[in-house]
Specification:
Length: 288
């Protein structure tokens, strides 16, 4: 059985945040993928909430996964990890008190860092998809997360959605989360370098940027100058695994296809989004 020191991996991640360079994460979803990422020289891995939902539930990313389910998968990965693992902890699975419990469980699982987002989750019926909680509630979660951790080396990363609000509001939130003691900020939905520069101007803590293939943000030296230390460029490894599984089983079964089916199409098909939409229309209307 491989032995690892979670505290040392957290120290390694802190060194990445304190550096002057930008590092790309590997999307990991099980122990084997974590070992592969470390062997290939990645400095950090990330267990995405959407990927965990697919891997554990076969369900779309609509906040169905529970803390225990997510922590169990993080524990399996943390048991063998030889690189720092970032856990996408969504909204902390509830309010600030739930976020404290989330920190305790994920610290025990061995993650080096976790992100807490300010999206209003689970999504409310009839509301816009990226509605955010108040700044006060968001800062409360950050402060609660800091209080709950036993190892101060574990990084608390506050996440906000740049395209879901005006630039002035993004700046207000990031400064508030910085003041609340976040170790880093995670930005999603940034459209270009001009917007990124406006947000990061004056920040004293490093940035984790979720680009999801945005070509206009592919310039690592420039990102580094703006304080971006960690880049998450999607979860293509997991989707490639889904497609490879489908193709292998299809060929083994001797089923011919007239055309190829992409990973996104396969995921959309097998997560049964139609059923969830039907249930949402049937039952969530009561919450209006």
């Amino acid at each position: 059985m491989q032995k690892c020191c979670h505290h040392e991996l957290r120290i390694q991640f802190r060194a990445l945040l304190a550096s002057q360079a930008t590092f790309s994460t590997a999307s990991v979803f099980d122990p084997l993928s974590a070992r592969i990422a470390a062997d290939l020289g990645y400095e950090a891995g990330i267990l995405g909430g959407s990927v965990a939902s697919l891997q554990i539930l076969g369900a779309p990313d609509i906040a169905l996964i529970t803390l225990n389910e997510f922590a169990e998968q993080a524990t399996r990965i943390g048991r063998v990890a030889r690189l720092p693992i970032i856990a996408d902890a969504d909204h902390g699975y509830g309010n600030a008190l739930n976020a404290m419990r989330t920190v305790v469980e994920l610290e025990r699982a061995g993650v080096a860092a976790l992100t807490l987002e300010d999206t209003l989750l689970p999504a409310q019926f009839g509301r816009r998809p990226f509605e955010l909680i108040s700044v006060d509630e968001g800062t409360g979660k950050v402060r609660a997360a800091r209080e709950a951790r036993g190892d101060s080396a574990m990084a608390i990363i506050a996440r906000t959605h740049a395209s879901a609000q005006s630039l002035s509001h993004v700046i207000e939130r990031t400064r508030a989360y910085q003041a609340a003691g976040a170790d880093a900020l995670c930005l999603i939905g940034v459209k270009d370098f001009e917007q990124l520069a406006s947000i990061t101007d004056g920040l004293r803590i490093p940035v984790m940027l979720v680009t999801y293939g945005n070509e206009s943000l592919r310039d690592d030296p420039r990102l580094a100058e703006l304080g971006v230390r960690i880049i998450v460029d999607g979860h293509s490894a997991y989707f490639a695994a889904v497609q490879a599984t489908y193709e292998s089983l299809r060929k083994q079964r001797g089923i011919a296809l007239s055309g190829s089916r992409g990973a996104s199409e396969l995921v959309a098909s097998y997560t049964m989004p139609g059923e969830y939409n039907t249930w949402a229309n049937e039952y969530l209307r009561l919450a209006e």
